[in-house]
Amino acid sequence: MHILITGGAGFIGAALGHRLLDRGDTIHAIDSLNDYYEVSLKEARLARLSPRQGFQFDRVNIADRETMASLFENNHFDVVVNLAAQAGVRYSLENPAAYVDANLVGFGNILEGCRHSQVGHLVYASSSSVYGGNTKLPFSEDDPVDHPVSLYAATKKANELMAHTYAHLYQLPCTGLRFFTVYGPWGRPDMAFFKFTRAMLAGESIPVYNHGQLTRDFTYIDDIVEGIIRVVDQPATPDPEFDASAPTPAASQAPARVLNIGNGNRVQLMDYIATLESCLGVKAEYDMMPMQSGDVMATHADVERLRIACDYQPSTDIKTGLARFCEWYREYYNCPRI
Question: Which parts of the chain have pLDDT scores under 50?
Fold first, then answer.
């Protein structure tokens, strides 16, 4: 298949590109290479992909309507995987315009391109953040997601609504994937696992929010990629059991669906840090902090719908995943063991 990956120099996009190339797909990746985090890491990911047969890259901002229209006019994509977005919950409090541009305007351009070029399946990144202030665990796709606690979360819910509209109006198959705290080699430096590692190896204290009283469903990058690939191969279809008199976010009479992709297990933040300490062989110094605006107490994915739809459930445990990340980090940043 000819597959467009937006955000192709990103953490998930680059990992997905390798796996799709391995199985023989041709990949057209685009990315704006913005400086939200170190551009050199994005360039290093691309340097590993660029020599591979069947890979093409263009530097494109998805919010650029004319450029995106030309991209779709000049290519025929069987599938589009939209991973381009302005990420980060806390940054959305500082720079909301970036989220409007990338996550709303940019996603609108993606939908229009898919519509006019009759793409066979749009797979796009949503987020566990859409569950917002919900306290019922685990989070299920059937749960209402009407109480976001950050602009980032609100834009991701908006993406789900926009995609559903295009699925309904134009019969564009759309699958939204609610990712739960993705981590692993080649990860994003703005995420906790990366920042903790950098600080600990530098002998600096790490910020521990809500005094460590947080839990997360951590999902290893390889598990995320496997889930995406399985979804790519099974375009969304109308749900024959959809009941318009009692609708839920999980079902539709249009070819649209949302699926959780998480490990399905909750890990206490302090247990997570202890595992990281063990992998690095370094004892962390804690800077205990209050709860941050836009953050949530817990995430936990119900992955039953993913298992039924794709016969798949992520399974990499946190000890294995963090060990692999730490090995990569030491090699990439040339941090020998003490």
Answer: none
